[in-house]
Write the structure tokens for this entry.
Amino acid sequence: MKLIIAAIKPFKLEEVREALTAIGVRGMMVTEIKGFGSQSGHTEIYRGAEYAVNFVPKVKLEIVVKADMADQVVKTIEETARTEKIGDGKIFVLDVAQAVRVRTGEENEDAL
């Protein structure tokens, strides 16, 4: 099993969710986050005053899938979330040692 963590632009969330559902992803966790990377934030003007925004709003997706599906999920997120502008996000893939469905006690791939 693989854990895929993706940080994407918030306005791309629904499009990414629909694309992942279409390829068979059955669930994901979504968290609103703030961060910075290459873009290092930006400046905005509010009520006539300019101020620095050091952290940019993002959405973090956490998805656990069977190992043989991980590459397809990564490719789908990458293609769907891409705007070709700085700040499109990052995707990380990690190994998952164990998963348990709380309701039934099913384990590992059966818990997905």
